[in-house]
Structures are given as structure tokens and as C-alpha cells.
Acyl-CoA dehydrogenase (Spongiibacter thalassae), 390 residues
Amino acid sequence: MNFDLTNEQLELQQRVKQFITEKIIPYEKDSRITSHGPTDELRIELNALAKEAGLFAPHVSKELGGMGLNHVDMAIAFEAAGYSPLGPIALHCAAPDEGNMNLLSKVGTTAQKERWLKPFAAGDIRSNFCMTEPGGAGADPSGMYTKATYDGDDFIVNGVKWLITGARGSSFTIIFCDVQAEGDKPGGPTMLISDMDQPGITISRDLESLDNSFTGGHSEITFNNLRIPAENVLGEVGEGFRYVQVRLAPARLTHCMRWLGAARRAHDIACDYARRRHAFGKPIGEHEGIGFMLADNEMELQQSQLMIWWTAAALDKGEKGRHESSMTKTLVSEAVFRIADRCVQVLGGSGVTKDTVVEWVFREARSFRIYDGPSEVHRWAIAKRILRNG
């Protein structure tokens, strides 16, 4: 296995790094970064910068105006973008939009792509993905309470979803619900698409959460007799579990790519501080207590990068990558949190202030261990596979 980057990959990495450093990091103190994430005004401004630099939508096909990168090249670009929490927003490759674009491109009909994916990929609109429920579907999608019933050729949806990232200000939603079979009409877990301005959709409340890097923050959505026409079924009725994996397996990996970049940023700040800050007669990095933390960071950064590239290569070879992405998501999310935690400790008092981005990375990294499946659920799934395969 050869993990050396090609000249083209090195150029891509450098282009994104330079763009993030020169154009995006200066926005990190912008007043338009709220407790519910960057505003749409700021997002659009950052998108324009990425378009001007030729770095917009690295995961989107060239036909739709993106860069058309494969998974390995995405890993390089996404990590470089993640060096700032605003980087993925700027490049239009942040969650949940990046995962929804992938899902629509693979499962959507021609009409659905024209109506939603085309303006979506261009950055003209945003989306959300409604799966998680209070007390219901989440890490276990089979515990779904949101139901859809037939009404002629339409579906009527009722239920509550929460922790829906980007709901506020998004133009459309992909709803994961349980269609109730009727006569010869099929039922089961299904994905339905709806514009957000439809009667029957209410953003019940905006959640005050630990993280704030996602445009629109996280919200609770109530569906009350929401009518969705049959042509808005994404894929087929009853095939929702299959499409969930189409979306989540690569999305777990792209999360890892982005947050590895954030961890690297925190580590760079901590290393610089450890060289400059003196205590007990020498730079604090020369004391074992600090130096060992930096060494552990370096090892975990390298380990995480290799896991990401390995899984990305598997996806590029056409392998499903579901179990590989579970292992990578668990390992990287926990490593990123440990790295961020050590960086806070190295910085001491300044580590818990907003004087550097380390405090922001720490908050985001803690949330990363939960979304797209908590570590415990991934370990359970990995253990089941081990036992099944002998």
C-alpha cells in the first residue's frame, strides 16, 4: 500500500490549505457566527470565495458545477477544509448537505435531481435530513415513530423529529418515516422529500446545543398531516434502511475527514504555545507532561489519517465500506476528542477561552462522538460482525 500523495493531490492539498488560511480563518471572529451556527448570509459570502478560488463543492460532479473528486481526493480536500470550522461551510461540503447531495445523486429520479439537487449543488439552497426522533429513531432507526399513511396517490405524514441539523433556513427535507401498508400498496421504512414551506411542517423549537459550526443549528420539527405526493418518494417505498446506509456509510467517513483537519489545527496551536510558553526555566513543551501529550497527539493524527485513507480507498474500489466506516468513525471521533482535550490542557487557562479556536474545536469534537451513531452502537455492530464471521 502506498500512501504517498501524487503531484496533483499535493497541489490540491496546498490550494485548499492556502485558501482556508488566507480567506476563511479571518472570518472566525465574525459576528454572524451565532450560537446556532453561521448565518446564511455568511455562508453565501464564504461560498462565493470558494467559487472564485475554484474549490466549491469538491464532492459534487463536474456536470453539476463541482470538482468531481473521488473519496481519496475528497479526504485530502476535506481535511484541509476542516482546518477551520468554517472551511466545510465555505466549500459547501458540510453536514448534512454533503450527505444529502450524495444520496440524491445516487437514488433520486431525474425530476428530483432537477428540482432539488441542481440548485442545491450550486449552493442556492440548503437541506436537512429528518431521521432522529425524541425517544424514537436515532442510532436504532427501527424504533421509528413518524408514520406515513396513504391518501390516494399521496402520503400523509405525522410525527416529530429532533436534532435536525440545518432545519432553520433550509429549503427542503428528506424525511425517514414508516409507511403504513394498505391493501396492495407497500409499506415499511421509506424516505420522502418535501419542501420546508409546506403546510404541516413546523419548526417547533431550536435546540441550544454544545456545538455551533452548522448553519441553522439543530431544531425540532413537527409534522402534522403533511401531504407529500407520490413523485416525492426517494427511491422505493419500504427500502429506507438500504438508502440510510447509502447515505450514512460515506457520510461517517466525510465527518472524519473534516474533523481530522480541525484536530490538526488545535494541535498546531498547542505546539506553537508549548514552544513559546516558559515555566520552571524552560519551554513547557520540554517538560514531559506536556511533551508526551503532544507526542500522543501526533501519533493519533497519523493513525486517524491512515484509517480515513484506507476506508476512502475501499469506497473508491467499489467496496461498500459500511463496516470500515463504522470502525473509522469510532476510532477517529474518539481520537479527535482526545487530541482536542489535550490541546485545551496544554494551553491551560487560555484553552478554555475563545482567544483561540481550540475551545471551539473541543466543543465540536465532543458532539462528533454522538452524531452519525455513537461509539457504543458502532462497537456493537462491529462485534456482531466479528461473531457472525467466526
Q: What stands out?
A: The CA atoms of residues 344 and 351 lie 4 Å apart. Residues 7-94 form a domain with the Butyryl-Coa Dehydrogenase, subunit A; domain 1 fold (CATH 1.10.540.10). The mean pLDDT is 96. The longest helix spans residues 240-276.
